[in-house]
């Protein structure tokens, strides 16, 4: 178990403030945040490359806040692998095994390299390896120390999508074998596909942490929501109108939603997939029907994200076929339809 | 002017510069008959001076490298108050006239200074001693090593050192297994530069030690006592020795680069 309590570190402009969280044994913990949020400083502080200004770090029941790096049992894999270019892969892997009997090192390297599929690379120099091979070597070099926790700094950045899939599968395999992992990324899809715990970080602070379900379905504020890819996350106040609850937004929209107490303040959240676009007002079970102007059309991997201003800017996700059928262009008027049950209210 | 014409003019200027360097050297090389050169090469005074020059310069370079290389690492990795001043101090020997540098070093090493007294007590005197020559050579040539080594360490990504630390290596082990090998090419060329610069030093050395005679001093002595004709063969032999040495080191360096 890795436990941080009130950790602070100020580093010429970059800092982390009052960081507290716990990574349980066997967790795949994702630290999600934009670049400059302080993620790398946090990793380096846990690894011991930086000394925290205050707060405590515990790992496996021991306090490691002031321990030297080599006694921490923390394995850090750098973003660009940091493989030693003047040593063959075998020597890179043996680096952390300094002082152990030769035979033992050889066996450890053999075991781990077959697990990570790098047996054929052992006698090669790093300059002849591909990005994916370097990543495997970097993982092996760190894992050979049998760290209590594996810290990964953006392990999938600057990889093409095929390689990403391959390395993700490898990381899952390592995690399933019982390795506790803390993985830093700015990509929420990566977070969703790998993590069983997520913390969102910005400006040196942890904004929210929990299971992916908790974070993705109950984002605590606008930053978290936008960062995890939720486009329709609008501040609102609950009012009663004809005995029914509505969420009133600053832009004057009154959005019908399921039963909620009056006068609550918070946010409404609507998935872009749940909004139906139509050329005219629909007569349907959707109790929210608004007219608005198309402001922006953004291509996405699965179709288009249509941004419609109906008092608030709402994003609807549609396919290319639907876009063509409705003849959607920037500037045209269009109708938004969504059910009250598709509207989620998150209390502030 | 057309781009191509410009290229021609600049190339011509380059050729003039090359000729300017090569003409005197080639002229010198062909100034003495092979027989004369052979005789000079056998002259014990010449032989001893060349050995002394190579030895003191090599010795000074290696001795001072023990402190200069770690110091360069500090300069590459850390910022500290007055760092700019420190860097300027390191470059100082390059801009001081070398005879003045010799006077400065002499003032530091002569018999009535504490260092001079200490060495007298130990039974030798820096002035007129190979140790004094080494110090004079190192004084004027150290900046070349420090600057080259510092650039070498700067070119080693710091995260490789960090990675080694997280793999449990002590800072000393990181220095010897990561920083030093990766900066080695720069350090080696710094060592060569320092060695070469020290070997060719005349001004500072002649003030500390006229005897024993290093080759540049011997050449000067033969010139002032006997004239140009007597100074030429020694110069040729010294240049040849130096060239052979550099070719060997360059070859070593380029073969180590390939690995």
Layout of helices and strands:
The complex is a heterodimer of chains A (348) and B (259).
Chain A (H helix, E strand, L loop, with lengths): L1 E10 L2 E10 L4 E5 L6 H9 L6 E6 L2 E2 L10 E4 L11 H6 L7 H14 L15 H13 L5 E5 L7 H16 L4 E5 L2 H7 L2 E6 L2 E6 L1 H6 L4 H6 L4 E10 L2 E5 L5 E3 L8 E6 L5 E3 L9 E13 L2 E7 L3 E6 L1 H7 L6 E6 L4 E5 L1
Parallel strand pairs in A: 3-8, 3-9, 6-7, 7-8
Antiparallel strand pairs in A: 1-2, 1-4, 4-5, 9-10, 11-12, 11-14, 12-13, 14-20, 15-19, 16-17, 16-19, 17-18
Chain B lengths: L2 H27 L4 H9 L1 H34 L5 H13 L2 H12 L4 H8 L8 H25 L3 H9 L4 H12 L1 H16 L3 H6 L6 H12 L1 H31 L1
Helix pairs in contact in B: 2-13, 3-7, 3-10, 4-7, 5-7, 7-10, 8-9, 10-13, 12-13
What does this structure look like?
The complex is a heterodimer of chains A (348) and B (259). In chain A, 24% of the residues lie in helices and 35% in strands. By secondary structure, chain A is an alpha+beta fold. Chain A has two domains: 2-227, 3-Layer(aba) Sandwich (Rossmann fold); 232-347, RNA polymerase II/Efflux pump adaptor protein, barrel-sandwich hybrid domain (OB fold (Dihydrolipoamide Acetyltransferase, E2P)), CATH 2.40.50. In chain A, the strands form four sheets. A six-stranded mixed sheet of chain A has the order 6-7-8-3-9-10, with helices on both faces. In chain A, strands 13-12-11-14-20 form a five-stranded antiparallel sheet. The relative contact order of chain A is 0.11. Chain B is an all-alpha fold. Chain B has a domain at 47-214: MetI-like fold (Orthogonal Bundle). In chain B, 83% of the residues lie in helices and 0% in strands. Chain B has 13 helices and no strands. In chain B, helix 3 packs parallel to helix 7, helix 4 packs across helix 7 and helix 12 (215-226) packs antiparallel against helix 13 (228-258). Chain B is globular, with a radius of gyration of 22 Å. In chain B, 35% of the residues are buried. The chains are: A alpha+beta (348), B mainly alpha (259). The A-B interface holds A 44, 47-49, 69-70, 74-76, 78, 80, 82, 84-86, 95-96, 98, 141-142, 145 and B 157, 159-160, 162-170, 173, 177-178, 181-182.
């Amino acid at each position: 178990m890795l436990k941080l309590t009130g950790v602070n570190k100020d580093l010429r402009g970059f800092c982390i403030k009052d960081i507290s969280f716990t990574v349980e044994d066997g967790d795949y913990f994702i630290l999600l945040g934009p670049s400059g949020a302080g993620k790398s400083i946090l990793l380096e502080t846990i690894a011991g490359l930086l000394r925290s200004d205050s707060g405590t770090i515990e790992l496996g029941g021991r306090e490691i806040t002031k321990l030297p790096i080599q006694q921490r049992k923390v394995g850090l894999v750098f973003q660009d692998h940091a493989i030693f270019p003047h040593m063959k892969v075998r020597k890179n892997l043996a680096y952390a095994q300094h002082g152990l009997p030769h035979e033992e090192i050889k066996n450890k390297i053999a075991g781990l390299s077959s697990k990570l599929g790098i047996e054929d690379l052992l006698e090669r120099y790093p300059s002849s390896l591909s990005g994916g091979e370097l990543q495997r070597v970097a993982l092996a070099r760190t894992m050979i120390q049998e760290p209590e926790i594996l810290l990964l700094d953006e392990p999938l950045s600057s990889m093409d999508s095929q390689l990403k899939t391959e390395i993700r599968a490898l990381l899952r395999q390592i995690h399933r074998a019982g390795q506790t992992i803390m993985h830093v990324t700015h990509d929420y899809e990566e977070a969703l596909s790998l993590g069983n715990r997520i913390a969102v970080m910005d400006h040196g602070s942890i904004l929210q942490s929990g299971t992916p379900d908790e974070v993705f379905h109950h984002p605590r504020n606008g930053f978290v929501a936008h960062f995890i890819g939720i486009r329709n996350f609008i501040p609102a106040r609950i009012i009663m109108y004809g005995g029914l609850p509505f969420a009133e937004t600053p832009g004057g929209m009154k959005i019908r939603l399921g039963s909620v107490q009056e006068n609550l303040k918070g946010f409404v959240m609507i998935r872009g997939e749940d909004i139906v676009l139509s050329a005219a007002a629909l007569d349907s079970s959707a109790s929210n029907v608004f007219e608005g102007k198309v402001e922006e059309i953004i291509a996405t991997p699965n179709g288009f994200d249509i941004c419609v201003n109906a008092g608030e800017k709402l994003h609807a996700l549609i396919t290319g076929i639907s876009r063509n059928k409705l003849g959607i262009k920037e500037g045209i008027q269009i109708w938004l339809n969504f059910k009250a049950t598709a509207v989620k209210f998150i209390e502030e | 002017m057309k781009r191509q014409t410009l290229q021609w003019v600049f190339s011509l200027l380059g050729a003039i510069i090359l000729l300017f360097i090569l003409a005197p050297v080639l002229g010198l090389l062909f100034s003495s008959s092979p027989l004369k050169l052979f005789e000079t090469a056998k002259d014990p005074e010449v032989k001893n001076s060349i050995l002394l020059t190579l030895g003191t310069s090599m010795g000074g370079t290696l001795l001072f490298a023990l402190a200069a290389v770690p110091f360069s690492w500090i300069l590459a990795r850390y910022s500290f108050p007055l760092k700019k001043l420190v860097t300027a101090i390191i470059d100082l020997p390059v801009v001081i006239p070398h005879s003045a540098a010799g006077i400065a070093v002499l003032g530091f090493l002569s018999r009535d200074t504490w260092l001079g007294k200490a060495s007298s007590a130990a039974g030798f005197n820096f002035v007129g001693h190979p140790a004094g020559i080494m110090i004079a050579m190192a004084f004027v040539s150290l900046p070349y090593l420090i600057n080259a080594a510092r650039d070498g360490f700067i070119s080693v990504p710091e995260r490789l050192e960090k990675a080694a630390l997280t793999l449990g290596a002590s800072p000393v082990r990181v220095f010897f297994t990561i920083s030093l090998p990766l900066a080695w090419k720069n350090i080696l060329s710094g060592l060569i530069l320092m060695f070469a610069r020290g070997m060719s030093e005349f001004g500072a050395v002649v003030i500390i030690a006229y005897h024993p005679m290093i080759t540049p001093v011997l050449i000067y002595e033969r010139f002032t006592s006997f004239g140009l004709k007597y100074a030429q063969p020694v110069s040729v032999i010294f240049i040849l020795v130096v060239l052979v040495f550099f070719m060997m080191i360059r070859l070593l360096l380029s073969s180590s680069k390939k690995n």
